[in-house]
Amino acid sequence: MSTGEISGIASNFWNEIPERESQFWTELSHITKEIHSIEYPNYKYSPVKSHNQNKSSKEVISQNTNLDTSVLKDSSEIVSHTTSEIDIDMSEVDIDMINP
User: Which are the contacts of 71, defined by CB distance < 8 A and separation ≥ 6?
Assistant: First the structure.
């Protein structure tokens, strides 16, 4: 499948989910964006042309994945501040919304 075809399928799924689930994922994206901006205040996206054009995407992803788990911060203040803007009680989120 091409990236465009996959994007079209994802778009169809997104447009079919219930409003509450859409709010959940939108809120989660705002929370993670805020956490990222606190952890990396001077971050600026600077794409670099890949030199791995002949490799499969799985090989490139495995080489470029470097998760820094040493940077763990208490984000409860961010979560409580941000979630008050949308009326979703995160303690009542259906686990199926997270792990379909």
Answer: 39
